[in-house]
Design goal:
The chain is mainly beta. Helices cover 11% and strands 35% of the residues. The chain has one domain: Electron Transport, Fmn-binding Protein, Chain A (Pnp Oxidase, Chain A). This is Flavin reductase family protein.
């Protein structure tokens, strides 16, 4: 099968999200200028550089009570900071609850039954007890093709790691089973690792 996205795929559901998988989930916490916390998961998320460490996430939707975007992007525009919380399998229901479309003055931490903790280097909340949290200063917000599509880039200025995730000096994902997004309504979690040595190592 071949299709041009501009012509449509003819299938009952869009296959694009199922092709680009698995995708890590950036559970983005932000705070607006009035001090209200927000939390939302984004599966268009990844690390993009080592030095300095940088991440990105893309927001591809719009809310009626925001200006052509979602709460996360609107808050980051106002404050210039955000935090990426890593999602573990045990938090899958809370992550899903925080994806609900809620008014901008509703705190998703409370809605999802999560406890906020203050970040160290930025004025933002993070998820207390998350396997890891990355405190970020926004470097740029890029408008890309399509309605309400924005990519947010941030430099990581603070890193939290839960004590039990460090095993023999390494951040060990087997201690918490990171959740990943697949296509449609499907998810998976990582439980096994294997190692490949690069030819030039």
């Amino acid at each position: 099968m071949f299709y041009r996205p501009e012509d449509g795929h003819g299938l009952p559901h869009n296959p694009f999200n199922a092709i680009v998988t698995p995708r890590p989930i950036g559970w983005i916490s932000s705070r607006d200028a009035q001090g209200r916390n927000n939390l939302a998961p984004y599966s268009f998320f990844n690390g993009v550089a080592y030095t300095p460490p940088q991440v990105m996430f893309a927001s591809t939707g719009v809310k009626g009570d925001q200006d052509n975007t979602k709460d996360s992007v609107a808050n980051i525009r106002e404050t210039g900071v955000f935090c990426v919380n890593i999602v573990e399998y045990a938090a899958r229901d809370a992550m899903n609850a925080s994806s609900a479309t809620l008014p901008k003055d509703v705190d998703e931490f409370a809605h999802a039954g999560l406890t906020p903790a203050e970040c160290e280097a930025i004025d933002c909340a993070r998820i207390d007890g998350a396997p890891a949290s990355l405190e970020c200063r926004m470097t740029q917000i890029v408008k890309i093709e399509g309605d309400s599509n924005f990519v947010v880039f941030g430099e990581v200025v603070g890193v939290h790691m839960r004590d039990d995730t460090i095993v023999d000096g390494r951040f060990d994902i087997r201690t918490f089973k990171p959740l990943s997004r697949l296509g449609y309504r499907d998810y998976t979690h990582v439980t096994e690792l294997f190692e490949l040595i690069r030819p030039d190592d």
